[in-house]
Amino acid sequence: MNYFNIARPPNPCPKAENMESVIELRHLKTLLALEETGSVSLAAQRIFLTQSALSHQIRTLESYYDTPLFERKSVPLRFTHAGARLLKLAHELLPKIAAAERDMAQIIEGGAGELRLAVECHTCFDWLMPAMGEFRPLWPKVELDIVSGFQADPVGLLLNHRADLAIVSEAVPQAGIAYRPLFAYGMVGICAPDHPLAAKDIWQAEDFADETLITYPVPDDMIDLLRKVLLPKGISPARRHSELTIAIVQLVASRRGIAALPHWSVMPYLEKGYVVSRQITDAGLQSELYAAMRSEDEHNSYLADFCQIVRDQGFNTLGALSLPEEQAV
Questions:
Q1: Whole-angstrom Cα distance, residue 59 to residue 6?
Q2: Any idea which GO molecular function terms this record carries (predicted)?
Q3: How high is the pLDDT of residue 74?
Q4: How far apart are CA 208 and CA 141, in angstroms?
């Protein structure tokens, strides 16, 4: 038998001689999150890590290669040449892995099924419809539909097998129900530009006491402003209801009252000067969204994929999002 001596290329990391590569998929996901968010803190929220855990991942890579991966003081974050090369690998590899995992799930599970959505959120459609559009070609055999009408008890529809996934604002522990966090977002108070409250940068609970609060026609425990800020202080302002966000904005602009809405939903009207927005309380008012499903479906591949698509759509298009604090690990 003939043997050939083939010269080995020089090791780019001499101190790592005889060691296996340190790169893992979680590192590549971290690099993508850093690119998409432009900051360590936002990237950590994006991938369900604490900031210290994400920093530890980066330090591990930088120690292994003995070189920085991004410039620490740049805003937004700027990758070095070494970091850009690993980022290129992430862009090439992660989509292929996701596609292969999706193909495997469809081969093993048949790729067919039903995904009926129940929604309790009036402002969901800004990001829900694009997510549905992205999901359909990836899972063509899954029948995707929305349970018609606003749902005051979407979790009940899950338990009655009238829906397969519900978008809810609270992850209330309940037998037979599992939750996946989607994202958290900031709520802002809005008023007409010439309203007296426009002179205040931050609204406190007491500022709502003598105003007319315009809300969607839903129970009080589904309105975060009431549940988290006003009712704990015994404040129950006069109310007016409207089904549509644009109608609420029009009423606010004409000084028929004030409202609290997601920042992303009122941005077009802020830019046109129809209304102005203000922070609610010194700490700000955050709202959360979760995907609820039956516990027996918790590991269903297409449900998990849909949740990931929804989360990605939110972070990529709505801006200024985070993850519920209790979900960071």
A1: 34
A2: DNA-binding transcription factor activity; transcription cis-regulatory region binding
A3: 81
A4: 49
